[in-house]
Amino acid sequence: MKAVLLKGHGGYDQLEYRDAVPIPVPRAGEVLIRVLAAGVNNTDINTRTAWYSRSVTEGTAAGGAAGFSAARTDDSGWTGALPVFPRIQGADACGRIVSVGQGVDAARIGERVLIEPVFRSAHGGLERVIYFGSECDGAFAQYARAPAVHAHAMSSALSDVELAAFPCAYSAALNMLTRLNVAAGETVLVTGASGGVGSAAVQLAKRRGAVVLAIAGNAKATAVGSLGASRVYPRDADLTAALGRESVDAVIDVVGGDGFPALLEVLRRGGRYAVAGAIAGPTVQLDLRTLYLKDLRFYGCTVLEPGVFAELVSHIESGELRPMVASVHPLSAIVQAQQEFLEKRHTGKIVLIP
Asked: Which domain, by its residues, includes 129?
């Protein structure tokens, strides 16, 4: 089969497109899917560049092209360990089941599915999590295998490309909203609102009846507003002046960096903050007095809460969500797709076709 292999940490030269990679064989409890479309994510680039290493303190774009050459490699995976190379990346997958392993009903062959990207063992805690395309081979290939329980059958009129825009971004956004327990009438501030997770969070928070405030580039304000944001603020806005202190019930953050302190200033007492990314920088300035004197609650979000992905599937099938596809590339053009991703001029998801 054709696939892109990540050979190690570094620049785009570490991505190798091959056309004679063995097709995986599904093991007991697994399905094999023919990948119909696969989305590009920060995780793909962060792993390639070694951004997850604690020795890196810059934003993701700083090493996007060449990688972080000075990064330690003993902790350069998202789990804190060294990734195994070569690896077929790709956490977003829409596909069709073509074969099944032992113990899986053969009647599932032919189903169009979305892969839930975080594989959580039924018998283990957070330390036994496998991320699709990270600790196992993923969707940047013509075929991929996954646990049958994480292959969710889809009944939708949306195209394969549109469906591939959902798994990672929308499940991450829904997971944060679930952790924060956002309710109707609350005010939610979303950073990075034009990206995959941010644009998903705007839609999903609006669906819950929240008042959504968003931060995005000026050129993307109209698009973000059309998703349900009541107001869109530029990235360089003085949030305290624009919103007022203690004016927001919850914050969904994927940006981090220098703008972090202002997010806590606009949170009300007892407010909630959830983070699932740090594209502007992983190290932030935190005054612990703000945290404890305002009784704020912080949530780090990677592993999905039980039932989150199934809820997302139901929202997709009911037509409640609008997929945001910025562009589509053949799998062989993965370098161009990542370059476009890092330019941050797009709104929504960039999708690859194997």
From this structure: 3-166+323-353
| Calpha distance 213→328 (Å, rounded) | 29
Strand-pairing partners, residue 137, are none
Point out which residues pair with 17 in neighbouring strands. Answer: 4
Q: Are residues 87 and 140 in the same domain?
A: yes
- pTM for the complete prediction? 0.96
| Tens-digit pLDDT profile for residues 142-175 | 999 999 999 999 999 999 999 999 999 999 999 9
User: CA–CA separation, 168 vs 171, rounded Å?
Assistant: 5
Contact 139, 113 (CB under 8 A): no
Mean pLDDT of 108-124: 88
- What pLDDT does residue 124 have? 54
Q: In this structure, what CATH number is given to the domain that contains residue 215?
A: 3.40.50.720
The pLDDT, as a whole number, for residue 70 is 85
135: its two tokens? 């600790």
17 part of a folded domain:
yes
CB neighbourhood size of 106 (10 A): 9
- Cα(352)–Cα(259) distance, rounded to whole angstroms? 32
Spatial contact of 119 and 145, defined as CB atoms under 8 Å apart? no
Q: What are phi and psi of 130, to 5 degrees?
A: -120, 130
Place 74 in a pLDDT band, splitting at 50, 70 and 90: confident
Task: Specify if 140 maps to a domain.
Answer: yes
3-class DSSP assignment, residue 333: helix
- Per 3-state DSSP, the chain is made up of helix, strand and coil in percentages (nearest 5) of 30, 25, 45
